[in-house]
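Service request form, structural biology core

Requester: graduate student, group of Dr. S.
Request type: structure prediction, single chain
Budget code: on file
Notes: please return the result as structure tokens.

Sequence provided:
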Amino acid sequence: MESAIPEHLQTARTRHRRVGDDYAPPYPSFVARHRPNVTRVVMAYFGLQSRGAPPAAAEQALARLTSDFATADGPSHWDRASYVDEAGFTNVVTVAYWDDRQTFDRWFPAARERWTGEQRTNNGFGTFIEALYPSVEGYETLFSSLGRPEGVAVLADGMSGEVLEHAYWGGMRDRIPLSQTSEMAPSGAPRAIRDGARIRIVPHDNLCLIRSGQDWGNTEAAERKMYLGDVEPVLREGMDFLRDQGRSIGCYANRYMTVVGADGAVTEKSYGMSWWKSLSALERWAESHPTHVRIFGAAMKYLSTLGPAAKLRLYHEVTVARADEQLFEYVDCHPQTGMLNAVQTVEAA
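Core staff response, request fulfilled:
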């Protein structure tokens, strides 16, 4: 049994795990392992927003972004998802990952100008960028099975063996290397500043992002029926609560999205991504809120019924980022979009 925290990131603890060394998880889980020389990653979400189906100009913008990804210094991995938000707008969100900040910094300025800057063509759709640049001490991953990594884990050198820190409340925090010495408490409050056509969010320290996904593509008929009939509706209920009422518990914004291929074809994958005031706010929802208690109960019933035969793949990545590891900017987006939903007013630059 391994620790989720790799050896080169382990340090003398001033804050203790919630479980002891004799804890035995009830089922296996795994984490992504980067090469030791990887010190920082980039998670950049490029969003496109339209009323109804994206217009032709929006489709052209997506195609241009895809072409940009294929240029020198482009991301090592990217994927795309879509959903209809609480205001009825279609959002297409493309998330790209780098495991070297300098490579990203060379690539980003030109792409940024085309997406939210002076070179952007405004043809009836909004655009936004939400990016984090965390150190490897500031995030964690978790997978229910090996093979077919998702998200930032695609960049990893490989996967761990079975890890200790999971299947208990607090395991998410215990997998983040910073938790060995830091409470990772938030400080400050987000502000919105108008910068030309853009609205920039000036963030606060220790904002939290979770991306949590499901892949039922390999399930057979009975398992698929169980997932889509018994688990997914409960998951959707929880995702809708976070979308519509999350601010009351520290969730600034939530998106429950369906992954699409580069050609726009719908896949049998989904993920929720949400911005939280803090890791502790996310933990409180996970541990005690009725919506997540129902999600957890449905998932446990499903997994205990199927046992090792389950072919549903589950994963997540959770990041806690300092203020200087964040970038948020929005052009022609409605005020409930992403981190715009975290602020009441927009200040002049």
